[in-house]
Amino acid sequence: MKPDLSTRCIHAGEPHDPQGSPHAPLYTTTTFRFPSTAALLDVVEGRKPGALYTRYGLNPTIQALEDKLAAIEGAEAALAFASGMAAESALFLAHGRKGIVCLGDAYGGTLELLAGQLPELDIPTRLLLGSELGELEAILIQGAGLVFFETPTNPALELFDIAALAELAHAHGALVAVDNTFASPVNQNPLALGADFAVHSATKYLGGHSDLSAGALMGSRELVMQVWNWRKNLGQTIAPEIASQLARSLRTLTVRVQRQNETAMRIAQAMQTHPGIERVLYPGLPDFPGHDLACRQMRGFGGMLTLEIKGGVEAATRVADALRLFALAPSLGGVESLVTQPCTTTHHGLTPEERARRGISDAMLRLSVGLEDADDLIADLNQALGATQEQP
Ligand code: PLP
What we know:
The chain is of the alpha/beta class.
């Protein structure tokens, strides 16, 4: 029987250590010595697994982390990277050269790479909004090789049907990669739903403490290993110190995310009836447009929610500035709660018209719910909304 996710988070990727350490030891060295040339060639030529050179990822601390990452997404193989963008860019270069279609909103850096930089290398890319999904099949028929999307998206938490999109893409010979950063493997496993890759900014929920930058790519051994040389030669491998720190964080992933799910639901419910709130976007609310799909493809609804504040952009800014427990900071997935106003951070580079086209109101505040007490977080929101309403 396959162990439960919590058990895998703790026990996967923890090789037997002769000294008795229950955790994979940290090897900070960049190189590893061999007893003979024959033994060295066995590793260099891939006949035997082993440690060789840290930038290649052939370092026991990194390899142990990758075993844990693969187990957590239910994948055959995983590669660990220095950042989420490193994982995405290596994936795009290895598997996206025939053309990449990105669905819905994505992280700003991803959009910049897809819209600006990859076309400079003659890699064709297309960005389709959720409302334009009808155009996807024609783009696949023209030969795009990779469909990429986040679900839920940032900041509107739009959901895409992973199983249906994988079926469509596969029918046209394309691969599917899902950025699973927002959901985390606790709430959603894209590979089990038919996607070929799960990609993560491990900087977020996997790291979970806002104190490391890392990325991860999971999938079949065959497809993931085609990314290996890109990571190696672009020098994108995670540092062993960070790999050890990330493995430490992964051991508590399920308890952190389950608590974040619960608290986010409490906040969403409390804010729904608040007179200062226009709209609460949270996949767990029964009236959220993607709720049925969320119930089908997610096990939990996540720790991210978005509030649309009554009174427009200025009111939203005043609320963001008045919050005390929620820190005004552009990231997510950590133990501390964060707030961002998408029009001043993640989507600042877009024109107001383009934000509106994407369904992103300037009055939105995106919350990343941490591990503080739910009542304290609700009280913080209430005091910030109250302070705003007192303004003339
Ligand atoms: N994917 C998502 C959904 C993100 O939010 C981010 C960063 O905010 C990234 C990818 C990029 O990750 P990193 O900052 O680790 O490179």
